[in-house]
Design goal:
The complex is a heterodimer of chains A (743) and B (87).
Chain A lengths: L5 E5 L2 E3 L3 E7 L5 E6 L15 E7 L7 H5 L4 H6 L1 E19 L2 E11 L24 E3 L5 E3 L7 H5 L18 H6 L3 H16 L9 H14 L6 E2 L2 H9 L1 E3 L16 E3 L10 H18 L8 H11 L2 E11 L5 E8 L6 E2 L3 E2 L4 E8 L7 E5 L17 E4 L1 H7 L29 E5 L2 H16 L8 H13 L20 H17 L1 E7 L10 E4 L9 E13 L4 E12 H6 L7 H6 L12 H15 L3 E2 L1 H4 L32 H8 L6 H10 L19 E5 L9 E2 L2 E2 L15
Parallel strand pairs in A: 10-14, 16-22, 18-20
Antiparallel strand pairs in A: 1-2, 1-5, 3-4, 3-23, 4-7, 5-6, 6-7, 8-9, 11-12, 13-14, 15-25, 17-21, 18-19, 21-24, 22-23, 23-24, 27-28
Chain B lengths: L1 H4 L19 H11 E5 L12 H6 L5 H16 L8
The chains are: A alpha+beta (743), B mainly alpha (87).
Chain lengths: 743, 87
Amino acid sequence: MLYEDYRVYIEGIQVPFNSIRISNVYQQNPTADISLPPFSGLQEIGRNYQPKVEIFFRDYNYGITPNETISGATRATQQDGYKLIFSGIIGAMSDTKSISSNGAQQQITLQAVHPSRILSDILIRYSSQLVQGALNETDPTATGATTTAEFSRETAMIKALQGISATAGEDSHQNVADAAEALRLQGTPGMIRVLWNILKLDARRNIGSNDSEAMTDMFTPMVEDGIKFWKRMTGHPTIESGIATSTYNFKPEENAKANPDVDNKPTMIPLTYKTFVGEAAQKELSVAALQSLQAGMPSPEVGSYGQLVTMMLDLLEYDMITLNSPVSRADGSIIEYITKPRLPYYYAPICNVLLPNMYYSFNVQSMYSATPTRTVNLANPTAGLAGMGQMGPSITYTSPHSVRFARGGGASGNLGSSRSSYNNKVGKYEWGQGIRAQVTQLPTKYNLMRGYLEEKDTEGGGTEIIGAEYNAAYQAWNTMYPGNPNYNPLGTNSGIASFERLNFLYADQEFAQETAKARQGSATGVFNPYAIVGYPMDIVDPVPSRDSYHGFCTSITHDISADGMSSTTYGLTSVSTFAELAKFNLPAINPYLMATFDLAEDPRIYGNTAGYIKACQVYQEVLGVGAAEPALLQDYNTGTMIPFTRTADTGGHWTTDGEGPFYDTVQGSLMLVARNITSLYELEQERIADGQTGYVDIDDWIYTDLTDVEYKRNPTRLTDTTTEGGKIVSAGIDAESSPFLEY
Amino acid sequence: MEGRRYPEGGSPPSLSFSTDSKKSPSDLINEKRRNYFIVPNSVSGQLAPNSSARDCFIKRQYSRSFQEFMLNYAYTVVTSKVLSGEV
């Protein structure tokens, strides 16, 4: 129960444990199941309270050396050797006992979840009575004037698209704490920060008898200072800086009510809408999409801020990754939340590489017959929208390019001709396997916008936003498909309206997703706290007659036993071999990202120096480690591993100049993929700086003499057992209270 | 049928939590263990100052009362021998 390499703290007190299972699944909050020796009263600890639990492992790479653990190192040194593998709040408990002829077993299992789940408890209605209901967004002030809610459907999303600002005042929806936060939250992460600021501003109004104490006095301090949500969040600056600085001035509709907060203010274009269409159409793309999302939210009575964030990020094709092992940065900051675009096809960070001694089993399944040869997305403009005209279901957006090329009439045709629904031409590569079509309806959001976009595109004169970004994205497509400029969605000879780029982009992403689903993988190996869910992952096989794999990590589960046995299991999707990475182009990714990642010249993530260097920058600035270039892991021709190493000089990157190979041992392999994780010492210092108390280790009291203790009455029991007249004299306490809290 | 409610006759036993001086040593140990916490004095100064509900939820302060419970738990589990009769 006291295996020294792992520690469990409940409410800051180190406790013995039987076993732990920590699970981090893509797009979900991390969870942990902690099995403890049973004890009377343990089953009540979660009653009307959420005890805090933290789990640490001893890190021999960035933490402490084995010699220091036995040489009487100071408490601070010992504590700095323990790194966080999970922090959460206890939300459930199970008590099990079984007796058989072979023996008996009993244990209590506490189920914990990451504290960021609190965002789902923050109902929009707590912000202000003003935002209740869709219609009543104004309210009279004490002086009789009216005021409009910040969370107004007309302006809230436009404000979100303005992002955050380091210079904004405290009463501004763009306000952030300081320049460091402004750097971390620039671009898309700033959008969800703006929505939070908007709810705070509305809550401070407190008009008439309305009271927003739940927001002002509970959830705001809890989220900002308690769990430090914004202080520990970041985006990828390499990606977001371009989004933050590439803005246009928002022009209100004619006859619209003037609003100085949004009119003519610099407004961002989210990644997913960066299709280089005319300025008027781009405005509609972003603003209309987000406003329709706000309109489609559940009522403020039941809808939560967490729900709003999830829906918005999903619309923008972003993730918010919650790290169960937060990054410890050189400047002392902690990164626990990363808001990033979905990147199923990209380089893996170094911490997501499984070297041969790190796993003992893996499995990859490729279901070729389940992979479509084409995706067909039907436009359905018969929903009665004004100004649409009679287009009927004859418009389709297909993918991949080889199918569009055939349907468009080949070299003499163009992209526009490929839209005809009744064209049954066979794609070049379908001749070898038949046609397996995945037919779906174009999402409603694209259809709803179609009418507005067509009108705006014409109104704006089809003015393109031409610049280095556009040129790079245009060239990237031409590099992948040389000699077919008439089929380039970004080209002027494509025969499509510029707003239709979005539909073709959607079709390409659908095809990439369907292809990805058909190839799944899993692996199990030694305990590895460094890997991160939501990023690509490499599994390296040193045997020349076998393949190494690259995929997208969708789940990580750690199993830890008190006797020291531990393991980590991984789940992957979109799996391909290193050989496939070298031979085939990446499935379609956003053209802005292609340009940002320096993949425009060569859209492969194998042997691509420019792309690799950029990937190192993307990961180093957030995770503290560089990227893994598959061509540097394994020799392409011989299939043998290339000796590479990592030293203090190379920091977060690998080099092939070293003597290595460290990957011959488990410990050496973990050293090669390690990243710096927040330590027990750092967390304790942060708590002390906040005026809180630190942690109590078993070492602090293990040698206590029984005469040097205090006996205190157990609060889960009756304090007074006196009975009189056949009943207990002392009164019962309210069922909704916790015996461990003072109210 | 009053007389048949208790085959052995008589009234229901009276309820009492009163201490019985004839309890065995193991009864006394169990009573102490179930109703009291053991809090080592050496770490008393490291514990939270109070168990304020607001501070514990909002500021992520630890509940002192809860910490005493967990200290007692850890102390008892780590230092005690589990008897077969306890399963």
